[in-house]
Records
---
Amino acid sequence: MLILRFLFLILLSHNHQQVLSCNQLDHASLLSVYNYISPPLNYSSTDCCQWEGISCTTHNSRVTILSLPGKHLSGSISPFLGKLSFLTHLNLSKNHLSGPLPPALFHNLKHLKTIDLSSNQFNGSIDPSFLHNLITYNVSNNSFTGPIPLSICKGSPFLEALDFSMNQFNGQIFHGIGECRKLKVFRAGFNTLSGWLPQDFHRLTTLMEISLPNNHLSGPINSSIVLLHNLTILELHVNELSGQLPPDIGLLSNLEQLQLHTNSLNGTIPPSLMNCSNLKTLLLRNNFLGGEISALDFSILQRLQVIDLGNNSFSGNISNSLCLCRSLTAVRLAYNELTGEIPPCMASLRSLAHLSLSNNYLSNVSRALKILKNCHHLAVLFLSRCFHDEVMPDDDDGLNGFQNLQILTLGGCQLKGEIPNWIAKLRKLKVLNLSYNKISGPIPIWLGAMPSLFVLNLTQNFLSGELPHQIGGMQALIGDNTSSDLSHLALPFLFDSLQYNRLFNLPRGLKLGHNSLSGSIPEEIGRLKLLRVLDLSNNNFNGGIPGKLSNLVNLEKMDMSGNRLSGRIPEVLSELHFLSSFNVADNDLEGEIPKGGQFDTFSVTSFEGNPKLCGYPLMRRCPEVEMRSIPKEGEEDPDESLWYNNDNYVPFGMGYFVGLFAVILAFCWRRNA
Ligand SMILES: *[C@@H]1O[C@H](CO)[C@@H](O)[C@H](O)[C@H]1NC(C)=O
Ligand SMILES: *[C@@H]1O[C@H](CO)[C@@H](O)[C@H](O)[C@H]1NC(C)=O
Ligand SMILES: *[C@@H]1O[C@H](CO)[C@@H](O)[C@H](O)[C@H]1NC(C)=O
Ligand SMILES: *[C@@H]1O[C@H](CO)[C@@H](O)[C@H](O)[C@H]1NC(C)=O
Ligand SMILES: *[C@@H]1O[C@H](CO)[C@@H](O)[C@H](O)[C@H]1NC(C)=O
Ligand SMILES: *[C@@H]1O[C@H](CO)[C@@H](O)[C@H](O)[C@H]1NC(C)=O
Ligand SMILES: *[C@@H]1O[C@H](CO)[C@@H](O)[C@H](O)[C@H]1NC(C)=O
Ligand SMILES: *[C@@H]1O[C@H](CO)[C@@H](O)[C@H](O)[C@H]1NC(C)=O
Ligand SMILES: *[C@@H]1O[C@H](CO)[C@@H](O)[C@H](O)[C@H]1NC(C)=O
Ligand SMILES: *[C@@H]1O[C@H](CO)[C@@H](O)[C@H](O)[C@H]1NC(C)=O
Ligand SMILES: *[C@@H]1O[C@H](CO)[C@@H](O)[C@H](O)[C@H]1NC(C)=O
Ligand SMILES: *[C@@H]1O[C@H](CO)[C@@H](O)[C@H](O)[C@H]1NC(C)=O
């Protein structure tokens, strides 16, 4: 088909030779290029300079531009592309082109200034020698392999942008890049590059951006990098860099983004960094940095929006001068050794939306909240394992405010007191984690009236009394009126992808395990259709397991172990098709374990510690007199489970003959198979 069209066009072009304005050599080459790709492009005109994506010189009609970005093209590159000898601009970005580039493709393309092959599926290695006038070279987001070809700088000393990112380049970034004396942008992130940073970086004084994240680069950041005065973006995160930050890093006065997180850097933050008045983003988390944070004077960083120093060994008080960075929207100091109190001046951070101070040694949680309630934009507040052994701030602390708060964590602080009423006023709160504290008293009735809450974690406290039936009113667990998408809140770059996913894909859940709750399990919980996790384990609940829980069609995990529940396990629970974890161990349940559905997958540990339970997977057989319930009209025959349940357990009574029949059938089936 393609060949026919090709021949036809050649014939056509011969018939109309006199009206052709485009150069015949180029015409033939382009035909080949277009025939290597699909879907077919518009080349109805006899003048190839009129074809889609083509431009020519005016005087001799030579093709200079071939630009077909984002056209959903697939196929590969024809070797004839290399014959378009006047080509200056090649842009095939954002297509589905694949395969290796033809050998010696660029040998005759002496005029090429721009090559953009980004976002395709090209593979193989690249040979850019013979290129002499390149300005822009972008091969990012493909599957190229081999070393990154820095010989390109020798041939094309006027290169301004080099983008090798998101491929499978490996090996070291050797000497050679220093020859690119006009280079402004150098990107090679998300490859498997190793070795040290190039030694001749400091010669590239024109550089504005160095972006090499997510490789295996090691060794120190050479101090000579501070000679790159025009550098605005320095991204070396997620590598294996070690040693200290260059002491004179403050000489990089144009720096806006410094991302060095997730390396093995040690030492302190050089005071000179506080001279980088253009800094907007400073990410240093997951390193071995330390020192007194209060010794740093942040006051010059008026444009700073995001600072993440988490998971290092910073100590001392939170610096007062941080409050002077009025543009701050996100501050993460979690997982350090900070002490003292939150400085009162933080109340003036009016743009602050995200604050994480988890895992530190701060004190006075009541005062901290009183200060932070003034940050009206605060949406995310992580304070778990941040305070220790204090009293839960209560309503006497005047905690109105927090009207935009969506996530509040105060877990693992050993806080005493009751669940305070001020929380009831947080109409936007979606996630509340008060786990691992010493909170006593009842579960307040108003929790059921919180309009947005869909993750409630009260695990391991001293909560007592009954679980109020009003809990079944939690709107965000009943209907999908509130979005459970927390991702727009997050500043994704604050987290490594793994942690990010863990935090922001929280399943809707009620976690009330390890408390002293008593009474029966309210059947109203069955209304919370969107629940994915229900943990009531290790309390004093008694009575039966409500059959209404079978309405929780999204439930993946149900834990009721370690209570005093009695009666049978409702058979309808076998209708919960997503239930992958079920635990009722250590109760006082009786009768036969339901069969079918997910119940065929649960192990002994889900049921042990109930002396009166019987049936699979327990070793205890049920008494033979017991009758299986007669299936109601319109319901599935419960014995259907036999078809795939080929253990040696055979039900007696009603199901016996059905079962026998099934076994015979299954036997014949297998013989025939
Ligand atoms: C193909 O291009 C020619 C001009 O080059 C134009 O007149 C014609 O409308 C185009 N056809 C389609 C289907 O786009
Ligand atoms: C290639 O085309 C895309 C889409 O129009 C454009 O965004 C990109 O800047 C072009 N590449 C170059 C190097 O000009
Ligand atoms: C390379 O192309 C991609 C799009 O495929 C773009 O996002 C990126 O900014 C380009 N690189 C440079 C240095 O312009
Ligand atoms: C990478 O390329 C694919 C198409 O090949 C595109 O869908 C995707 O958005 C690109 N990714 C980036 C980060 O540009
Ligand atoms: C390149 O990709 C093609 C499929 O598009 C495959 O057949 C070929 O083996 C790959 N070559 C290399 C060097 O990976
Ligand atoms: C830093 O780079 C300079 C210049 O290339 C070199 O002489 C020096 O040895 C390097 N220092 C370290 C610690 O690598
Ligand atoms: C740095 O940037 C300024 C302003 O864009 C420019 O005038 C200057 O030439 C650049 N310096 C170098 C060494 O490229
Ligand atoms: C930093 O780490 C290097 C090894 O990477 C080590 O030699 C040096 O002593 C460390 N410095 C500090 C201050 O811990
Ligand atoms: C910050 O810059 C000022 C003026 O440019 C200079 O005097 C001071 O020494 C610098 N501070 C540090 C710590 O480098
Ligand atoms: C802290 O950083 C280390 C080393 O980068 C990493 O292994 C660890 O998972 C991080 N811990 C947290 C809580 O982020
Ligand atoms: C830390 O702050 C407390 C008050 O909260 C103050 O008493 C103490 O002196 C400060 N310590 C340092 C090292 O600044
Ligand atoms: C909630 O409680 C569980 C214990 O069941 C704990 O492991 C988890 O980290 C807590 N936090 C969140 C946000 O779920």
---
Amino acid sequence: MHAFNSEVESLANEILAYSLLRLKDDPPLDGPRTAEDLFQEVGNTITAKGLGGHEALEVFTNVLAKACISTDHPRNLAFIPSAPTEYSNLFDLVVGASSLYGGSWQEGAGAVFAENQALRWIADLAGLPQSAGGVFVQGGTIGNLSALVVARAAARTKYPNTSRWAIACSAEAHSSIASAAQIMDVELLKIEPGADRKMHGDALGAAIDQLHATTQTRVFAVVATGGTTNLGIIDDLATIAEATHARDIWFHVDGAYGLAALCAPSVRAKFNGVEQADSLIVDPHKWLFAPFDACALIYRNPDLAKEVHTQHASYLETLHDDTWSPADYAIHLTRRVRGLPFWFSLAAHGTDAYTEAMEETLTVARDAAELVRQHPNLDLIHEPELSIVAFTRKGWAPSDYQKWSDKLLADQIGFIPPSSDKGQSILRFAIVNPWTKITDISMILDTL
Ligand SMILES: *Cc1c(COP(=O)(O)O)cnc(C)c1O
């Protein structure tokens, strides 16, 4: 619509200046507003003649951006927040400026090569063989679904007479597994975790055997969680791997949040057994300091995934050779090279910096748990396995939790929405940001 004239150039300077400011200064937390309220202020921004770049940018920076909670604020400990490195965010500008196509090797070879090296780092941390490989997809939800579709295809080949299929996972598994089961029209065999809140191989094996003995339904995949989202619990991966493979079933590890900590020596042993995975996922946009959105999906045997996910069409056949096209490994075709900001930061900083930053967040989580334990009004739910610290407030009804949380955001102190555990309201700190200091935690605890 415009050549790169002086008007575009001046907008470029404005956008870069805003981006730099946003990256340099601690962002305010900000918060949501209603659609009515926003409409009153900005009106309909889509007009026949256009607002012009300057005006549209002002609408965004002055109004819309402030109606978005800053996920990278050091006292945003909600859900799983985000903490991209400055390098990864800066390089995201390059990705945006370059119109890179990440679906095929032919079009994106250089970028895909770099993404694959970043995936290799994760595969090596997990102890997967050299043949392992995969792709960066949008998020853990798509990553889990893509892997499970491959798992079912593999099972169909081996057990062609099966008419009903099931996924086995812990009752504490992420909601995306239930979503995948629904999309795939398969059943979910939920395993009650043990007293330590982990799923174990013996309970899993017994439940699968019972299902197979009493129904026509066959389990085609076991999903173990490498760090549950609510409490950060890591299933007993080693015994699960054994029970799963002994029954000729696909072993998938959902580590969207937790597997990032594979690079942290202080907790690495908790993931023993992950090296047996047939597939795994981890979201660099959660705890590997990368911007939204990027999920690393890795298969032990990527050829199986390629058979299942490659799309065939007359205009696409030219791409189907023995090169590595990321489109072939998940449910997608066109794709942004969403792993590239992560790659750039990892390449520039080196992996030691990741280990260090990871250990810092783990240390803050341990110290935060200690402060919670010492707090007269609070009860720690569970010793943190990773970087999630969950607790209850003595004497509070569910509405008290919500009121406290709303006020904390309104006061712009922090963002900590309530969650629940075993039917009881809880609060949880998800600490993934190396800029979250123990003083930030104290500031929040002082309001409890
Ligand atoms: C966040 C999360 C997911 C879903 O990942 P998205 O990137 O939000 O789609 C799946 N599993 C676990 C364990 C998670 O923490």
